[in-house]
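chain below, 133 aa
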Amino acid sequence: MRGWVYAKRSSWVGRWLPLLIAMGVIFFVSNQPSADLPNFGLWDVAVKKTGHFLAYASLALLALRAVWGVKRPYLTAIIIVLLYASSDEFHQTFIAGRTGTPVDVLIDLSGALTCLWLVHWRHFIPQPAFLAK
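prediction:
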């Protein structure tokens, strides 16, 4: 299988630095008081929850890339994302106007699981010739 997720990486930095940078970006955004966040009007909740879903889908992909080669890479990536999502929601309880909710952790986890399922499906399910290129 070709692709950047499965590429051989010999250094710790090549495997883990992208994941740590993504975690830093999520932490930075989570650290903003609610008054500093944009408001999308009627679409505010949908936009922000979609952002949760996509951010943690990306984080799961980077976690999978970091741990690829361990005995259970998908499970390990999910555990990393779950722990980070939980700690991020806890962190938000200390930020003015923000709340940490289990619902957001579930949204984060659903983004991660969806992404990893798609990667698994693409990797292990035989693809028609026109998709294999």
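Residues 112 and 118 are 10 Å apart (CA to CA). Residues 12-124 form one domain.
thats it, cya
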